[in-house]
Amino acid sequence: MTQTATNLPASGPLADFERALTASRDASFAGLGATFYTKLPGAPLPAPCTVGYSPETAALLGLDPTAVKDPAFAAFFSGNFTRERSPAAMSYAAVYSGHQFGVWAGQLGDGRALMLGEVEHAGKRLEVQLKGAGRTPYSRMGDGRAVLRSSIREFLCSEAMHHLGIPTTRALAVTGSDQPVRREELETAAVVTRVSPSFVRFGHFEHFYSNDNVEALRALADHVIGRFYPQLREADDPYLALLDEAVRSTAALMVEWQAVGFCHGVMNTDNMSILGLTIDYGPFGFIDGFDANHICNHSDSQGRYAYRMQPQIGYWNLFCLAQALLPLFGAHYGIADEKVRGERCVADAQAVLERFKSHFAPALEARMRAKLGLEQAREGDDQLANRLFDIMNTNRADFTLTFRNLARVSKLDAQGDTTVRDLFLDRPAFDAWAMDYRARLAHETRDDAARAAAMNRVNPKFVLRNHLAQTAIERAAQKDFGEVERLANVLKRPFDEQPENESYAALPPSWASSLEVSCSS
C-alpha cells in the first residue's frame, strides 16, 4: 500500500519511536563529534510503500507492533521526516576509509546510509540506519539510492542469518517507490532499515590512522571498548586487547560462514564489523552446487572473495585493523625509545594476529564434526570431512542438501543413502566415502534417530538461495509483496522440516544458474 502521510504524526507509536531515537545518550557514536560524521537529512522517497517488515526486529527496538499499520510508517522509514528534526537531533552519515579488493581506496564513508539514531530497550542499545536514503558528502559519484532488488535481498538475508544463529546486523523494514534509479538497467528505488549494536567497521579505524589523527583514533577505540568490551579497560593494553577481541570474533564469524556455504562477496575492510557481525549484504550468495572456488560477486573477476578465500581474507583484513590501531599500543611498556617501542608493538600485534589460526581451525573442525553427526573427535575425522568436500566439489553436489540429507544415512546399512547419494553424479565415489563414514559412525554411541536429530539442528534445510530471492524480487516489482513475507517466514525456521514449504528446499531450477549479482545495487 502506498503511504500518503507527509508529516510525522504528533502522537502514536511512530512519534514515540522518534522521541526514543533522538534522545541524548551517553557514550553513543553521535557523541564522538563532527570529526566522525556529517549531519544531514535524507532525500524524501516519493510515494513510498512498505515492501517487507520484521516483527522480531521491531520487538528488539521496542517499536509498537501497530506502527506498521500507520499511514506514515513507510515515509518514516524512508527518511522522509528527517528534515523536520532539530539540528541537534539530525540524522548523520559516518566517514571511514578502507581497502577495497585489496587496494587502498582512501576516504569512503556512508555514501547512501543515514543513521536515524539509537534506541535503548530491554537493557540493549541499538542503532537504526537507513540504507538508500539519498546522497551524502561521501557518495562520490553515486546517487545515494539503493534499489528494490538489493534492498529485498539485504532485508531477507539479514533476518535469515540471524535465524541461522550467525552474528549479523538486523533489518526492520524495506520501503519501495516508483522513483527510477539507473544501475546496469533502469530499476526502482528502495530503502532498507538496518539495525545493529554498532556500525563501526575496520575502515573507521583505518580512516583516522591514514589521516594521522591519533586523538580521534583513540576516541573511537575508547568508544568501542566502553560500549562493548568494558572489561578490557583493566587489561595491560586495552587497545591490544581490542584487537584480540576482533581476531576472536572475526575468526568465529568465518567459521559460521564456511559452515553453511555462505559467501559474502565483497569483504573489503570497510565492510568488516568491529564486533564480528555480518554487515553490508550486497552480492552475497549461498552456494548451491558446491565449488570451493565459488565466486558469488560477478564484479570479483580475480576471485579474491571466493568461498575458500574468506578465512584468509578475514585474516588479511585483521592485519589492516592491527596496522590502524598500532599508534595506540604500548603505552604501558615504559619504553622511551620510539623505535624500540614500535618494534615491541609490532611484535605484540603479530602475536595477537597469529591467534586467528588457533581460533579458526579447531572451531571449524568441531563444526564439521557436528555437521557429520560425530560427538567425539577421533583421528581421521578431518580427512573424512575433507574427502566429502572433495567429492562434493567434483560432483557439484548441493551444499545445503548434502549435509541435510546425511542425517538419513544409517550406521547399520546403506538403505538410507539414496537421497543424499542421488546428489552425486559419481555414485561409486560417494559409496566409497559413505562406507568409511558408516564405519566411523559405528564408533558413535548415539542411535541413528538421536544423531539425525542433532545433525538437523546444525544443518539447515532452508537457506536464502538466489532463485528464491529473485522470485520474491520479481513479484515485488509488480507490487505483489506477499512472497517477501512468505519467504521471510520460511527462513525464520531454517532447521525445521516444514513439509508444507518443501518447494523452498528443493534443488534450484535450471534458470538459477544464469543469475548474477554484483556490487551494483
* Coarse morphology: globular
Low-confidence parts, pLDDT < 50 over ≥5 residues?
Answer: none
Describe the sheet with the most strands: 6 strands, antiparallel
Calculate the mean pLDDT score and round it: 95
Q: Determine Rg (CA atoms, Å).
A: 24 Å
Query: What proportion of the residues is helical, as a percent range?
Result: 25-40%
Number of continuous helical runs = 16
Kindly state the number of beta strands.
12
The N- to C-terminal Cα distance equals 24 Å
Q: What fraction strand?
A: 5-15%
Question: How would you classify the helix and strand content by structural class?
Answer: alpha+beta
Q: Strand-and-helix sequence, N→C?
A: HEEHHEEEEEEHEEHHHEEHHHHHHHHH
EC number: 2.7.7.-, 2.7.7.108
InterPro entries: SelO
Cofactor: Mg(2+); Mn(2+)
Keywords: ATP-binding, Magnesium, Manganese, Metal-binding, Nucleotide-binding, Nucleotidyltransferase, Transferase
